[in-house]
Structures are given as structure tokens and as C-alpha cells.
Design goal:
Number of strands: 9
Order of helices and strands: EEEHEEHEHEEHHEH
Shape: globular
Distance between the termini: 40 Å
Largest sheet: 7 strands, mixed
Strand order of the largest sheet: 5-4-1-6-8-7-9
Number of helices: 6
Oligomer: single chain
Strand content: 15-25%
Structural class: alpha/beta
Length: about 200
């Protein structure tokens, strides 16, 4: 089994949320704390951020964005060359239901020639910010970034990408929920509390 690390992407500006999403309360900690615990079994877990000084209290390595103002694609292009393992599981910091089991399932499914394994919902929606990438995908992603098209869907078209049915992964499509607005955050908290107490 190939070694696998994880990077939690924390470099976004959280404009729709109105505050840093990584620091939002979740359970007995924050969204970031939750993901760090969930992924702790991997070979290494580190953070991708626009500035390392934003996360001074975390013991894990922080990789600063080398391509400012280029969105999540810039974070990936910074994280992949810094990765010390052949495989890198990338997850956005606003996906608190993602577990290490999702990363493990993608590792089991990725083929030797595929450069990325990306969950895809029945609706066709893809999740490139909860996906597995080979370190060797970095040059093609950097070429996409240099074209000044920062769309991840466009970037994936440059790779040998394997799309994995999201409903076959641990947690299913619900497990890939991401939080962009205060309303989505409040709704997921309410739903999670109901599952525990109802």
C-alpha cells in the first residue's frame, strides 16, 4: 500500500462565511481540530495556508501558498511539491464530516496510472477538495495555474482522473458536506445534534 499524507486546505478568505472557517466551533474543538483528529492515522498531516502565522498553535507543518490569489488550485500547487509521500489526500477545512476512512477508500480505489481519485455525486457534482492526488500531478496542475484559469474542474481535465461514486465512500454524499455560509453551518450543527440526541 502506497504511503499517503494529507493536507488540510485553510487558505481561503471565507468571504461568504464572514470569518475564518477553520476556527469555527465543532464538537469539543474547531473544524480544523476535528479534521486533524480524523486524519491523524495518516503518514503526515499538514496545513496549507496563505500565512503560517495564522496557525501558530498547531504542531503540524504549515505549507504557505506559493501562488497567492489563485484559490484552492494554488494551495494544491503549493502542497503537492512539499508532500513527502507518493499520495496526498487534500481536504478543505470546512468539511467536518470527512474521516480518515474516506482517504483510505480512495487509496484503495486509485489505479497505478491515475493521477487523481475524485468523489462524484449522482448529480454529477465533483469534490476535488476532498480527493486523492499523486505527487506527480503537480506539474500539470501548475501548468493549469499558469494559464490563469484557476478552476479545479479545468485542472482535473489535464490529469488522468478517476471519478469515484461518492455514495460508495464511507459517509456517502452527506459525508462530503462543505460549509460556505452561516446558514449551512447552523443547519449542519442542528442536524448533527439531532443524530446524537434524537
Amino acid at each position: 500500500m502506497e504511503a499517503m499524507s494529507a493536507v488540510i486546505l485553510c487558505g481561503g478568505h471565507s468571504r461568504r462565511m464572514g470569518r475564518d472557517k477553520a476556527g469555527l466551533a465543532w464538537g469539543d474543538g474547531t473544524l480544523l481540530d476535528t479534521l486533524l483528529r480524523a486524519l491523524s492515522g495518516l503518514d503526515e498531516v499538514y496545513l496549507s495556508a496563505d500565512c503560517a502565522e495564522r496557525y501558530p498553535f498547531h504542531a503540524c507543518r504549515v505549507v504557505e501558498d506559493q501562488y497567492p490569489h489563485s484559490g484552492p488550485l494554488g494551495g494544491l500547487c503549493s502542497a503537492l511539491p512539499a508532500c513527502r509521500t507518493p499520495l496526498l489526500f487534500a481536504v478543505a477545512c470546512d468539511m467536518p464530516l470527512v474521516t480518515g476512512a474516506v482517504a483510505a477508500a480512495l487509496r484503495e480505489r486509485i489505479t497505478p496510472h491515475a493521477q487523481a481519485a475524485v468523489p462524484q455525486e449522482a448529480s454529477g457534482r465533483i469534490h476535488p477538495l476532498c480527493a486523492l492526488y499523486r505527487r506527480t500531478a503537480a506539474p500539470a496542475l501548475i501548468q493549469q495555474l499558469q494559464s490563469v484559469d484557476f478552476r479545479l474542474r479545468s485542472a482535473l481535465s489535464r490529469l488522468d482522473t478517476l471519478y469515484i461514486p461518492a455514495w460508495e465512500l464511507p459517509g456517502g454524499e452527506m459525508g462530503l458536506t462543505n460549509l460556505n455560509t452561516p446558514g449551512e453551518y447552523a443547519a449542519l450543527i442542528k442536524n448533527s445534534e439531532c443524530e446524537v440526541n434524537c
